[in-house]
Amino acid sequence: MKRTTIRPENVHQAALLRLLRDGGRSRAELGDVVDLSRSKLNVELDRLVELGLAEPDGLAASRGGRRSGRVRLSQATRFAGIDVGATSIDVAVTDGELKVLGHLSEPCDIRQGPAAVLDRAIDLLGKLHRDGLYDELTGAGIGVPGPVSFAEGVPVVPPIMPGWDRYPVRETIGQALCCPTMVDNDVNIMALGELHTGLARSVGDFLLVKIGTGIGCGIVVDGKIYRGVSGSAGDIGHIRVDDLGPVCSCGNSGCLEAYFGGAALAREAVEVARSGGSPYLAERLAVAGTLTAEDVGAAAAQGDAGAIGLIRDGGRRVGQVLASLVSFFNPGLVIIAGGVAKLGHVLLAEIRSVVYRRSLPLATGNLPIVLSELGETAGVIGATRLISDHVYSAN
Ligand SMILES: [Zn+2]
């Protein structure tokens, strides 16, 4: 059964819904921030209540006259966020203000292909449905770990997603969940999560660098994702840092990702362990037969010099690329996120030192470089922000 999600009728209603997404408030407070006469504002708010998109919420404290009525988004509003990673899947259901009501996460191999992975996402959401977290969904957002044609809602030649090229992800999820759906790449939705509820809340122009299995960069300009002409903006993992470097999954050599993605770090960790450079990693390798980026982090936390060296090398290369991006883009904030970012402060210190040394003072004078504090929730919240931006826009 296909339902029609009710959308705002004009740009004023859309703007009011987006304001209310940041929290309910009084009519007087809304009047302070929108460019509408008081009577026009009340007409639009009353109409939103009639449409079932918003609802009254008692009276505000007096500001020295008649008490103003509070308004909030309809408490029945529910968004779904799906964050498909290379090795995991996260789903969440939020209310209209994008507060997470339920979140499920499990390991999942993207190489199983779209039918199996998307089925899993729908199953997990079904569990949240049975738990009573929603009856109907107002919209769903989904992020996938590869380039996406945003207009068509399909992945395009994604290097680490065999079988997903041009698969109708938006259509599949939209039909299964009976609601408007949008697809973007995982880095962009993480950036939207940071914009909505993370460290970037008050920052209009920032970069989010995700260092996980791959490396990508979300570019936010004036509060909006910049995707480029075909959707590949921010694909910084394949910027070449050394002509003679290792071969990358994309077929070129010397890409940033070939040095410091999760896979590259694991490979280098094995080399260091075998060459006697790290007793800790050698012991882990003997026990587990393999090493991961997490092992490198754990070794570094124990003060293991070999592991710290690996993180510093990787951080230096990320810093080199980032210094160029900072000179080019002049962001107000850089957030480092993703699995490898869990390597923490050794990584952050190295990236900071290279960027601050190599970029011009005017670009870095007021530039915090920080680790994400949202962790696994950035992607799912960002996915709901993506679809709510769409649903809360005038047709
Ligand atoms: Zn590459």
UniProtKB/TrEMBL annotation:
SUPFAM superfamilies: Actin-like ATPase domain, Winged helix' DNA-binding domain. Gene3D superfamilies: 3.30.420.40. Pfam families: ROK (PF00480). It comes from the Bacteria. InterPro entries: ATPase_NBD, ROK, ROK_cs, WH_DNA-bd_sf. Belongs to the ROK (NagC/XylR) family. This is ROK family transcriptional regulator. It comes from Microbispora cellulosiformans.
